[in-house]
User: Fold this.
Amino acid sequence: MSRLRFSTAREVFETYPAAHQAVTMPPTTEPPLTFLARLLKGPAPMEAAGFCAFLLPRRETVWWALQAVRAMQPPGTQDPGLAAAEAWVREPGDRTRFEALRQAQAGDRSRPGTFVAWAAGYSGGSMSEGHAIPTPPDLTAKMARIAVLNAINRLPARDREGALRACVEACIRLAEDDAGKR
Assistant:
């Protein structure tokens, strides 16, 4: 069973106009995963990570970014932003979402995990506990993209292509529901 909500790449861009800022290749009517494969093989392969962030539903986007960032960190790295995002993925709701948001606000903005926490915190509902401020629907994707690209760019240049491929493959598995069991 597929988790994809879109039948064409163009639908992704129509739903999230901000995707045009992350992906310069013109959208097509081909299936999203076909478009994603072309992005990865194209002149700007890093744009594939941006497309992944907009392609999946919000919860899966956070899970994807969390797993991607975690895979690129040194073993044993403790990251409170990733922990808060994971708590929200495992138990989505306002309590865990606001905890992720608090963790992001207090976090080190140079760490990719802080942006994964922002992605979880901006996954829906209000952007503030005290006031009803609707969260724009594309903020989860934007924050997840920043997190993944930040993590990739922290790697030695020789490891970046492999890390990008691993990120895209993880997105495809989630989209196809092969690895969607948490």
In short: The mean pLDDT is 93. Residues 21 and 50 are 9 Å apart (CA to CA).
